[in-house]
Amino acid sequence: MNYQAASTRYNKMQYNRCGRSGLKLSAISLGLWHNFGSEDVFSNARDILLHAFDNGITHFDLANNYGPVPGSAEETFGKVLKQDMAAYRDELVVSTKAGYYMWEGPYGEWGSKKYLVSSLNQSLKRMGLDYVDIFYHHRPDPDTPLEETMAALDLIVRQGKALYVGLSNYSAEDTQKAESILRELGTPCLIHQPRYNMFDRWVEDGLLEVLDKRGIGGIPFSPLAQGLLTDRYLKEIPSDSRMAKAHFLKESALTEVKRNAIVALNEMASKRIQSLAQMAIAWLLSNKTVTSVLVGASSTKQLDNNLAALDNLSFTDVELKTINEICEPVLKA
């Protein structure tokens, strides 16, 4: 059947301006890190992507190494885009990244101009696109001069292969330096994608302040701490969970301190008529520096649960203080 987007797709979603740019992003964005690779079921990936757009998600976030196998998430997205969503390309914000290992030899990772330009060319080919809306440098390179990496991002915009550029996993100090270089080149830094959640708050030690002062949007990934900030681990470790499979989340991550915090946060979420996952997403969106929250999904049902976070985004000062008190033992551990 030919796909036709839901006419109600913009009715409930919230759209936030990204820093001091002209671009707005859906408050919830869909990340394709997991569940969209060649080893996953294509029909399920397609269902999630179309369901996301039908519910107002316009931003789809990828990277050259997303899979498994690396590159295959971009291929899956490209296939769905060509087959179902080509008519809606101008309603979509498509982002991809380069920085981590992708191919053999000295030019297959990090932040050289050679690698970044080559990687984006490959990504565009996999997705069947002429350009992406946002291109990120995925991680800082300790050896390549920052000036070269930022010049590569500037070049990519001037070539018309990306409309905007961003950073991911950069410290506050490096973000400030990179933003200054980009601004001098005439290509502003649009957005920063850091890991950020209730249990992981490194960005509060300077980065959020830099983003706010420099007019850069923020889009946290891992908002649910790899699934810890859900009701999945309240009593036991489910056999089908990421932790049971030791896939990016080890059993050792679920300490007694964290379990106690999860139980307390879940009780608080229940009082707010939310799931713990919904409260964790809403908590991030309550920060004025956060433009959008990047969520993953293994099913349309899971995506719907995350989208329902938008039903209650407000927190009282008492609630925010309570969350901090519950999380404090985890943050100190």
Task: Give a structural overview.
- The longest helix has 16 residues, at 256-271.
- This protein has 333 residues and is of the alpha/beta class.
- α1 (42-54) packs across α2 (72-85), α4 crosses α5 and α7 packs antiparallel against α10 (317-332).
- The chain contains 10 helices and 10 strands.
- The termini are far apart.
- 38% of the residues lie in helices and 13% in strands.
- The mean pLDDT is 95.
- The strands form 2 sheets. The protein has an 8-stranded parallel β-sheet. A two-stranded antiparallel sheet has the order 1-2.
- The radius of gyration is 19 Å and the shape is globular.
Structural descriptors:
8-stranded parallel sheet; alpha/beta
Number of strands: 10
Structural class: alpha/beta
How many helices? The count is 10
Query: Strand count, sense and closure of the main sheet?
Result: 8 strands, parallel
Instruction: Spell the H/E element sequence.
Output: EEEHEHEHEHEHEHEHHEHH
Strand order of the largest sheet: 9-8-7-6-5-4-3-10
Mean pLDDT reading: 95
What ranges have pLDDT less than 50 throughout 5 or more consecutive residues?
Answer: none
Radius of gyration: 19 Å
Overall 3D geometry? globular
What is the end-to-end distance? 53 Å
